[in-house]
Amino acid sequence: MRRLAAILFLLLISGTARANDKVTFGLDWKAEAEYGGYYQAVATGIYTKHGLDVSIQQGGPQVNHTQLLLAGRLDFNISSNSFTALNFVKENIPFRAVAGMFQKDPSVLIAHPGMGNDSFPALKGKPIMISGDTRVGWWTFLKARFGYTDAQIRPYTFNLAPFLADKNAIQQGYLGSEPFSVEQEAHFKPVVLLVADAGFKGYASMIATSDKKIQQQPDLVKRFIDASIEGWYSYLYGDPAPGNALIKQANPEMTDALIAYGISSMKAYGILDSGDALTKGIGAMNADRWAEFYKAVADAGVYPKDLDVTKAYTLQFVNQKVGMDLKH
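Request: output the structure for the sequence above.
Response:
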């Protein structure tokens, strides 16, 4: 009897002492409110509750986390938009999106108020500053939808100075960044046109991983996605202070005001919690929307028309209403 009790005790000790699964997760930019749900999941112990020890690695202009993911140095990463997932298919790379955290792409065009540039149709034929990546991304959608041409393109230097110096200037931006910077530096609210609100169907800030991990460690993938979703609900609808503290620790350039602006913008525009996410939970994706997006970009000549779009994503880990009880 004593021997049996001892064995049971040892089994109990070994079970409780088992280390959490280590996960390395790469962002596509530096720490900011747009990654708040992940930092919140670390800070509040949500990942730990799901048996995970998550290390978040920041991105930046000199960091290519997609390459690190493909090389196996990351378990998961943030894929900025649906184009990345289609690129995996086009290049026959065995990785895919497992959650579409942003229902709306937060890419924007900004313009000066009072200059007649307050709608997408009004920008036809006018010079617009965009980057090379944007030119082969959502710019193709704007061309097809509103009749824009590449003759309108001007170089985008990731610097606000040219925009602020010219009242007729129009440039690309990010919902939670450039509009705030304009208000802080120039003391006016710019016109903000969200590309997603013009009908752009691409998901953004998706979580991607390898087909191998999906096949061999589906439980780990599920736990990571579930915990990340719970982290986002906690961050958006609970007290974001724990996550914000980690964001500022990782990126000292972040201020309370900028973080608050980012959170407010994500809520106001329904970046995470809109569309399918309202009924199926944050991270939701659906096959029809993927097919519609692929058809639009293939018709625009960005991709060949014979890709199997279903290889770009899996719905295995989303659409399960995880964390919705945390929403207030």
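Strands lie at 21-26, 52-57, 76-81, 95-102, 107-111, 128-130, 153-155, 170-174, 191-194, 204-210.
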